[in-house]
Amino acid sequence: MERPAWAPQGIDISVPSVSRIYDYYLGGSHNFEVDRQAARRAMEFMPGLPKIMQANRAFMRRAVRYAVAQGITQFLDIGSGIPTFGNVHEVAQAASPEARVVYVDHDPVAVAHSQAVLAGAERTGVVAADLRKPQEILAAPETGLVLDLNRPVALLLVAVLHFLEDADDPYTAVAELRDALAPGSLLVLTHASYQGIPLPEEVAGGAVGVYRDIRNPLVMRDAEQIGRFFDGFGLIEPGLVSMPNWRPDGADGPEDEAADEDPYAFSGFAGVGRKT
């Protein structure tokens, strides 16, 4: 298998990666055939997976603009994946030139590509770290250089918590991050769930099985379990809802319109909370 020039040395390109699979769903080019094969296997069970990812991205952009409108111009995006058009720093800095963004991921391809995309970009940083070790994220030099944690921050945990199993203690990880944030900070979150998927659970479970087979288990939680991540945050209206139903404004153009019409876009949950 030929290694593309953009692929960092030292990574095994024969092993699928969830961030590269996500990139494939979004129509990106930073994925390998092994990632595409895994994505296509999952889509045999849930053909609407790309629509779910588009709705996820559209929600993220609306939430970022909401944060800037609330006066928050600092963003900590954990599980950021591979930057594609319309990522956090582009949306945030279009709304406020002073916006600052730190991207965090543990996938070497995502980190390397983020560094390449952001080379020379002001008020941005990239951290190679894992959500399961929040103190490493908070203590990273790039985090301290770009963000002032004494001021409100928008913490983005978008499509990442469902890759943490209960044994990883995800609630404690989120609580540690919450405790490090200033009052008034926001938590922006999306999470996969069987609720809302327009398929029987046993069929949708086939796609979940694909992720388990590639050793990236996808944990489907219900609304009550997802709501627990907002402990210490006051949920902002309309609360914990499907992604297209969180403050739809039509501002994301055709992608948003397509999501609104597709039943798969209403799978899972999204919400924004403010630290009290």
List the main descriptive attributes of the protein structure presented here:
single chain; 276 residues; alpha/beta; 11 helices; 39% helix
Description of the structure:
The protein has 276 residues and is an alpha/beta fold. Helices cover 39% and strands 13% of the residues. The chain has helices at 18-25, 33-45, 49-69, 88-95, 108-117, 134-139, 141-146, 170-180, 201-213, 223-227, 254-261, and strands at 74-78, 100-105, 124-128, 154-158, 186-191, 233-235, 269-275. The protein has a seven-stranded mixed sheet with strand order 3-2-1-4-5-7-6.
Quick recap of the structure?
The chain has 276 residues and is α/β, with parallel strands linked by helices. It has helices at 18-25, 33-45, 49-69, 88-95, 108-117, 134-139, 141-146, 170-180, 201-213, 223-227, 254-261; strands spanning 74-78, 100-105, 124-128, 154-158, 186-191, 233-235, 269-275.
